[in-house]
Every structure is written in structure tokens, then in C-alpha cells.
Amino acid sequence: MDQVLGVVRLQLHNVRFGMVLPLACFGAVVLLNMAVLVVNRMSSDESPFTSVMLTLYLTVGLGYIQITTQTFRFVLGMGVTRRAFAVAVIVLAVLDAAGYGALLGVLRLVEWATDGWGLGLALFRLDELGSTANPLLHWLVYGAPIVVLAMVGALVGALYTRWATVGVYALVVAVLAVLGGAAVLVTLADGWSAVGAWLAAQPPLALSTGYPLALAVPLAAAGWLVLRRATP
Description:
The protein is an all-alpha fold.
């Protein structure tokens, strides 16, 4: 446990990449989206897609690639076990999910209180939960993608640490093959309408939180299987 906490503290001390960079990118994209939405509102009544939360999620996910590739060998050289490092990454992902989920929840409340930042904009609203949903549900929905993207980033970083770019390319090819094969099978079975009906029948909380968190489990396991035999 001491080793796990030590690795977590090490990552938290890296404020520039762990917090400043994601928040700086997030702030820049928020301002850019506000400007685009204001201009769009002048010419159209439609609300375009905004990339505010997606940018934050992707930035955090990229940070976990850096955590795995740049600190794994360093902490192993300090006597930290691979298992302790893997557990520390999961703990850090949960902490990030809790923190960023709370931040997005606060921004949603501010957006609601100011009638869309005084401009009638909707950057952080989750329409699928309804306007009267408990703030705890919003926190869960905001935080769940952080855990998933963190595990994806850690897996990519683990593959790079063990097999360099060959491992990353192999992952990309495997994912494309699985998704492409699944798409072909569904098309041959004329099952896209059934897939759409199944998705429409799922509770919003399951799609936004339950299934993503379930996906994070095999991703974390895969990352561990790769790291447990990676050499310093």
C-alpha cells in the first residue's frame, strides 16, 4: 500500500502535465466553443455539437499514456513493484474521475444559474438525464468517461513500453479488425435496426456510466497483463 500511495503522490506532484495542461486545453476549447456557438446563434437556431467535454476526456486519456511510458521504468528502478504501479494508475484514474466529474458538475450548475453563461448556451448540459436529475448522477456520468479513457491511455502506454510502436500499431489493427468484422456481420444479418432498437431501450445511466465502467475493467486487466512482463 505504501508503494501505491508513493506512486500516486509522484503523479500528483507532476502538476504541469497532470492538471495544468488538461485544464488549459479545456479552458481554451470552452472559450472557442462559446465563440462558435455565439456566431452560429446569429445565423441559425440549431445547436451544433460541442467538443468541450470530449476535449477534456481525450487530454486526460493522453496523460495516462505519458504516465505509463515515462514513469513506469523510473518507479521500477526505485523498487516499486509492477502490481503497485498498476494499482496506483487505477487509483489515480478514480481520483481524476472524481475531481473532473465534480468540476464539470459545478460548471453545469453555473451554466444553469446564468442561463447558459448569459448567452443561452448549453456546453455542459446532459439532456438524457433530465433537468431534475440528482447532481450525484451528473457527477457519475461526467466522471465515468475519465476512468475509461484513463484505462485506454494506460493500455496504449503499456503496449508502447513493452513493444514500442509495434505494440501500438498492433492494437490499432486489432481494434479496426474487430469493429470492421462486427460491422460486416451486422450488415450481413441486416441487424442494424435491432442494434438501434437495443440502444434506444437502454437506460441513459447504463449507456453513459454502467457500460463504460464495465468496459474499463477488461481494459485495466489487459494493461496489467502487458505491464507484468514489461522490462525496465
